[in-house]
Amino acid sequence: MTSKLLRFAFATCVLSLTAFAQGNAQTASAATPAPAPSTPSPSTPTAVSGVRIGIINMQQAIFASNEGRRDFDALTKKFEPKQGELKNMNDEVESLKKQLNTQGEKLNEESRSGLVKTIESKQKSLQRSLEDAQSDFQAQQNEVLNRVGAKMMNVLDKYAKENGYALILDVSNQNSPVLWAGASTDVTKAIVDDYNTASGVAAPAASTPSAPSATRSTVPRVNTARPATKTTPGTTPTTPPKQ
């Protein structure tokens, strides 16, 4: 992920620290030894010295939620016309490149140079349009992530307090300090379920692909290599001036 998708959620979040102090006070005042610890079930939060710690993949939770899936699907459909436009532009450039490769030797110097300039001009225009579309798409995707994520943080806060968590770490960031965590510590699904209930948004009718990454693009790839120029015997290679 090359961009920050959540300004508020992708950093380590500490929730209900007072629960930690209260837990220690209760442990110190206990009159009888605590029973031997049992192996936690997948739905039981892990306890370390009386402290309950959990992890969450916040980005995955946002895209897995009904609201996140609905809004991202709508965003993808919104950009379909632009995707088609860019594909047509790309096809036109590739067609001109093919024409240059197959007919270049038959063209005189002026015609060949003109074709090369046309290809470079259209290719630059395509590249600019592509970058603008990617930037616009990324900005609107971030808006969905931030909006849904802000509401999901409220659900996470409520869940942590009700279940006695002292710490919940977000592992969706590539720079997360968490190297390993047991399955019983992962509260992602529980938060998604609670969020779906709180939001009241129904699940999308059709199945959707897995959560997209921050770098996924809805526009076609563009070959930005300069078109090669060909020479004929007895002539000097001609490189068109940069525009």
Brief sketch in words of this structure:
The protein has 243 residues and is mainly α.
Distance between the termini: 34 Å
**Category by helix and strand content:** mainly alpha
Quaternary state of this entry equals: single chain
- Residue stretches low in confidence (pLDDT < 50, at least 5 long) are 1-47, 208-222, 229-243
Mean pLDDT: 75
The strand count comes to: 3
Order of adjacent strands in the largest pleated sheet: 1-2-3
Percent of sequence in beta strands = 5-15%
Shape: elongated
Computed CA radius of gyration, to the nearest angstrom:
28 Å
The major β-sheet equals: 3 strands, mixed
Measured as a percent range, the helix fraction is: 40-55%
Spell out the helices and strands N to C: HEEHHHHEH
Total number of helical segments?
Answer: 6
Features of the shown structure:
243 residues; mainly alpha; 6% strand; elongated; disordered N terminus
Give an overview in words:
The protein has 243 residues and is mainly alpha-helical. It has a domain at 17-25 and 46-199. 50% of the residues lie in helices and 6% in strands. The chain has helices spanning 17-28, 58-64, 66-78, 80-103, 109-162, 188-199; strands at 46-48, 51-56, 165-170. A three-stranded mixed sheet has the order 1-2-3. The radius of gyration is 28 Å and the shape is elongated.
